[in-house]
């Protein structure tokens, strides 16, 4: 009898479902979706296929789906374009997505992205996130909301996306409406002293009525003694944004924030030295040095005061080896380098022994006679990446700027990795791998914060500068002059970017590679494992072939990194 009733109930349910007419797309799409029904996504997938995959993310009554992706992809704002795992929301505790295990070294920050995907036609809603970590004492989780900025049209190859994710602000909620998704960045800071352990990060998101959760396990590899700041990643940071200026305290706090990401605001001591009272200069140096800074740009000699006083002060304080000054002429042509930079450099070296001079320039003859540190782009004439891997003098740094001048290119600058907002995330991280491989001893990025072109109401408009550069510069270069963002309130902190986070991850990659090389040199890895590790430490041709040709799948780099960590975990000393 019970079996007969069950069959009858199933027949009634089947008849009810079959009586609901199937959606007739695109006619039955909401107006916003109907407007994009004939488009393709940046990868070339028609909206019809994106829609079909999207609808499969939801349960029958789910308000939203919760997505997860790694830290080496930029999440574009249109919710139908998201690629990654997801789980549908439900009433109560909701469903839970168990992610694959992620490998990380003790002492680094492991990141991932959480994406809220409202159901098609959903009303505007606010989504709240909570995150916890278990299984690792001292590990800390921090969450950021990602903002999408409108970028200017450019003349070089880019995905056809009008808004890109980049500004980040500490937050645990996001309001989402229309066709957008909501995106969070999650940092998990791992203490350097952690033993081998498997920890779990649980992220739950709710709209107030339904929820969904993600569980991300992280396998920690101990004992690698990562030292990211041994490889200088530096940039210039100024106090102006729009018509406003940062206070001295905000400037130092910005320096501390970027140091947390293994970048150094090298010029924060400029303008602080007072020969009559150097206490402010010394306090600023101490503040930054205590947080790991080891490269400091000084004022250049001028008529403001006797430069000998600054030189002697730094020398007597014991950190002259960390001090630099910039050359007298930026990005010189060949004749200017020979007639102006070289004599000036010779005079500086005679007057101030031990003080180093750095210069961004095309490759000229007699480079070592004009600077101690030569900064050059991977794509310029006069620089041969393979031939100059072992360059003895001057010291080679790479220079990532989307608009160097007074150069010629041997290959397209726009086809090499760079730092713009509208570059793929892979480019920012891969650039550091390339610099390490080609023998650079440091990296300079133009610029960390030089944001006069951002409007005072940036956080209202969320729009980047739209005015092309003027001669001898030119064009639009989205975010070329900043890697951090202005405060959301006048006295608030300067805020990080997705690009800064990706660069941090790249710096931790380089620290991992150096640790692996140390283990090889110390004989901690031997035999077949050592041979395999040497293969993994060579990124060519698997990760990239040369500066203009690389594997465009971010998973290739991530899998190489995981393979290195797995091998080192097998030989890591027992705790």
| Anisotropy-based shape | globular
Number of helices: 12
Rg calc: 27 Å
Helix-and-strand structural type: alpha/beta
- Spatial gap, N to C terminus: 64 Å
In percent, how much strand structure appears in the residues? Answer: 15-25%
Which residue ranges are poorly predicted, with pLDDT under 50 across at least 5 consecutive positions?
Answer: 4-20
Q: What's the number of extended β-strand segments?
A: 24
Q: Largest sheet at a glance?
A: 9 strands, mixed
Can you give the mean pLDDT? 94
Determine the fraction of residues in helical runs and give it as a percent range. 25-40%
What keyword list fits this structure?
nine-stranded mixed β-sheet; 25% strand; 24 strands; alpha/beta; 12 helices; 27% helix; 575 residues
